[in-house]
Amino acid sequence: MEITLTTKDWLLNAGLSGFINIISANAEKKELWEIKNNSFTFDIKVLEHFEDDFFNFFIKKYKNVLTFSKLISVEKIIDDFLEIEKYSETEILKINDIIELFKTKLKLNSFVSAYDYIRQGLKEEILSDEKKLKKIKTEKKGNFSNEDVKNNLFLLKKIISEIKTEEKQRNHVAAKNVAYSVINRAWNNVSFFNPSKTGNDIFEEYREYFVQPAIDFLNENKNKMTLSCSLTGIKTKYSKRSIAFLNDMGYDIAKKTSHGWNHQSEIIISPLALLIYSCIPAGFTYLFDNGIFVNANSDLNELVRINNAISYKVLEEKEKISQFIESIIDELGDYRYEISDIQVIRLENLKYKFQSLSKEKLKKLADCKNELQLIKNKYYKNEKKEYCYLYDLVDLVIEGKQLKQFLNFLCKMYIERNSDLNYSTEALFSILKINNKMERKEKLSMEEKKKELNELYYLRQKGIEFRSRYIAKSGNDKKIETLTFKLLESLRAGNIKKFMDEILSVHMYAGIPVESAFVKAISDEKAFYNAGYAFVIGILGKNNKKEGEENEE
Fold first, then answer.
1. DSSP secondary structure string, 189-238?
2. What is the pLDDT of residues 42-87, one digit of tens each?
3. Is 136:144 a contact under the CB 8 Å cutoff?
4. Are 459 and 520 in contact (CB under 8 A)?
5. Which of 187, 204, 466, 538 could anchor a disulfide with 460, C-beta 3.0 to 4.6 Å?
């Protein structure tokens, strides 16, 4: 039996994408499904042992961030330590860190409830071994018992061998780990999350609640059914199950009947739709309490490919979720000129945030690829000493906000040049170029773009030269900082008169003629900001690139 589903809203698309990711990870099922444009067709046989595919997918995808993986990965380090005859204090500290990690994590409720599913009696054995693990005590002279070290290492190795499983064996500890660190970011309260079921077999609980009902539903005779599933369009019976199990979605129609007309919900959800929704966490990419899904629904293949590219960069290349735009640009390539608007769904501190990325903005951001690379991993620390990354300006662009105030703030921070900053004037100049491109309304020729860019480089260079002349004249570095603050305040307020008064005054003081670009700025607001910020960035520091070195393609 074959079933065909098509893309709809972001919620179903995230579930579809996740469902496809899960079954495509099982090579034995590759002939049982097909994607064509916005449609996905699969044979009911893909649901055989789907519960195993479900958990194996998450365990493999999040192997680099799971607590379980961290415990298993130290086995090689332990083997290396066992080869050592005499330990240094540094090595003892590392061994103690490993012991602390195991003592803390082995007692996690999610782990403890899974031990006996690996082997009957393992729970008692692991908890007993955990108590035997003792940090290595060093005497005042730095002496310690070599025997204690070896005993702890052998005990750690024994624990690892117990919780590890063969490739085709169900790993209940790892499954519990992904359930409480990944899957619960999307849904909760039902199946293995039901408080009365937490001690049960996690694989069987998922199968019983989601997989088997979907199989039974698809095999059911539907001739006498009059209702249709709101999501799949397949005929179904009325059910009191809803999408209330999804975090921040819907309501429990069995408990809150008054929410529906005549105490009946008009949204009918089939068991197949519920199974697809349970796969939403496989469509998202999560890192701690944050996540992302890009709903590029003009083509299902593209939707899956873009989100998998983001996953790879975040989980394998350790990039930040906020750098998702880079993956979109890379994956779409020239296709971005045909694609429709994209919806970006972000999970931030377990709350959904929606952003719309128009194809026009996408094209412009693609043209800013070089500049975005230059601000990658650049940051400053706020008052709470939290890292704030310059790349987050992409959010401002998507939300339709200008970057000028953000640039103004960064320039003022740069003047102080304290240890909480990790960016240069090159990054500031890149942001100016990004803002210039994003605000560009008219379509320019390649020659016009090159001329506009060279003007920015020219004004920046004039700012560098002005700094040298001004300091030589005043003999005081502090005066140039005061001047820069004044110029930035005029730019922030959009006060062209005040800015020009300062420019004329300081140029007369330094004995330098005023650039004609500033005269033009009086009647052209865009030219005013371009000239002003390029000049100020020049004042802030030396340019290491030749004028016009980076031209637009």
1. SSGGGSTTTTTS-HHHHHIIIIIHHHHHHHHS--TT--EE-TTT--EE--
2. 999 999 999 999 999 999 999 988 999 999 999 999 999 999 988 8
3. yes
4. no
5. 538
